[in-house]
Amino acid sequence: MTSASLPTTAQTTFMQNTEQDILEEALSITQGDRQEDYGDCKVELDRLATMWSVIFHTNVSPNQVALAMVALKITRQLNKNKRDNWVDIAGYARVGYLATKELKEPVKLTKQEINKL
Prior knowledge:
mainly alpha, about 0% strand, globular, about 75% helix
């Protein structure tokens, strides 16, 4: 193979990204950079559930947050077919599972807990 036929760095990165399975990519993202940048997924979903509970004046569980994020990516996918949407759906599914796997029922805040916020 001559140097003229070798792919450029950009081509190699693109080929690796499109050839990598979306589940493997979602796993890599949720275990690596995103976890380092944003911390424990359970804490993040709990925080977001608390915020949404206040905003919407109803109890929102971390499980519901993860499901809503998947729904967001589905609506984006319906607008435009993008590989990134599929990766994110898989990532949110993993994060949602990890954050709620010990729960038998979704966690709900009482009105008193919401009023304290």
